[in-house]
Amino acid sequence: MEKEIRVALFEDNYMLRDGYYQLINGSPGLTCVGAFDNAGDIIFKISGCRPDVILMDIDMPVINGIQATRLVKEHFPEISIVIQTVFEDEDKIFESIHSGANGYILKKSPPLKILEAISEAYQGGAPITPSIASKTLKLFRQTSANHQLKSSAQLNDRQREILQLIVSGLSYKLIADSLSVSVETVKYHVKNIYSILHVHSRAELMARR
Amino acid sequence: MEKEIRVALFEDNYMLRDGYYQLINGSPGLTCVGAFDNAGDIIFKISGCRPDVILMDIDMPVINGIQATRLVKEHFPEISIVIQTVFEDEDKIFESIHSGANGYILKKSPPLKILEAISEAYQGGAPITPSIASKTLKLFRQTSANHQLKSSAQLNDRQREILQLIVSGLSYKLIADSLSVSVETVKYHVKNIYSILHVHSRAELMARR
DNA sequence: TATTTAACTACCCGAACGGGTAGTGGCAGG
DNA sequence: CCTGCCACTACCCGTTCGGGTAGTTAAATA
């Protein structure tokens, strides 16, 4: 018999975590080597139990599943991570993919599907719920389609103008003065820019170029 | 008689502003075409009075003299700006120079020196108090000396490591987790990095590269 | 051994930021 | 005329940042 797949679990809901734990350990070929209710200090936790696959809840206290995924992938790129969520939120999917997650499934998936997802991820596959799959395709069309002219394409003139000032290191107030509009207006545009480019801060914005 | 030098005044202290106004208008060859107690909406104000030289207080409400200078230089690079301050603060000098100011003098300078500074700035000179001059030289040695290996030289290993994560767009919390240290420690290092590189935010930091 | 320095941890506070919601006026197309 | 869209303004709220201050520990130096 070949090696068992070592699985670690991150899920803040006690009932769910316990359920998954039973489910995994009850499956031949799978062992749950760790179950945690948050992803704080996740690198340390991972170092302790050395999983092959991580089943990661997306909504957790301390740091969320996406951030946690990014961290793990930085230190242990060989570990497969399956992100699990209740939502089919477009942004969450986008971020999950970009955080390096291998799969993205819904919590409402039947237990059998979850076990399949773990195995599939371990074998190098990309377990994805069909409804998720279609959304990722849509996102890929939007973004990696162009990919380099992306950054400031798909922005209108005003947004591009403000983006320019943002990346010059100016604050809302300075941008507002520079354009002779209110600070609120600047915030309005920046919000839209963030949303279009799928970032959430100046730092992320500037890192993406 | 040649054209008079048109001077605009930004100074929040009423007494001083009035004094300067009298001083300038009392000098042959100089006209005070505007005196304001703050630099809010400065582009509009400047557009209204079209000065050749601006005498700018560094400490003002709404937006400070350095920010104001940056704005003016963006829109009217031909206007000469003399920054005036009570402090000989190293950082302020550094920022003033980088904001594009033409001169930097102390408020305690005698009136005659101030008038000279205005004329000198108008003629393309760089009026600077001697004590300021020596500090600028020191700063230049530190920074523009290297200029491109600057950014991460003069930082130690730990600081360079954290800088790397900062420019990747990570938050304090994520950096902390990534390095397995406390958020406070990360803040500590970032503070030092900012201080060394003379910036005050992620945005400025990333703009400088 | 005493002193100093570097790296780290911690707490505090005000300002800036991110994100949500909502309302205005103008202009285009139905 | 109504509807939708767009640029803009505004307010709210929770979080993050930036910066000041201070205390700990360990190593280096005197």
Which pair has the most extensive contact?
Answer: A-B, 31 and 31 residues
| Largest sheet properties of chain A | 5 strands, parallel
Helical content of chain A, roughly?
Answer: 40-55%
Oligomeric state, counting identical vs distinct chains: homodimer
Given as residue ranges, the uncertain stretches of chain A (5+ residues, pLDDT < 50) are: 144-150
Overall form of chain A: elongated
Q: What strand line-up does the widest sheet of chain A have? A: 2-1-3-4-5
Distance between the termini of chain A: 48 Å
Rg of chain A is: 20 Å
Q: How many helices of chain A in DSSP terms?
A: 10
Kindly estimate the percentage of residues of chain A that lie in beta strands according to DSSP. Answer: 5-15%
Average predicted local confidence, pLDDT of chain A: 84
Structural class of chain A: alpha/beta
Number of strands of chain A: 5
From N to C, what is the helix and strand string of chain A? EHEHEHEHEHHHHHH
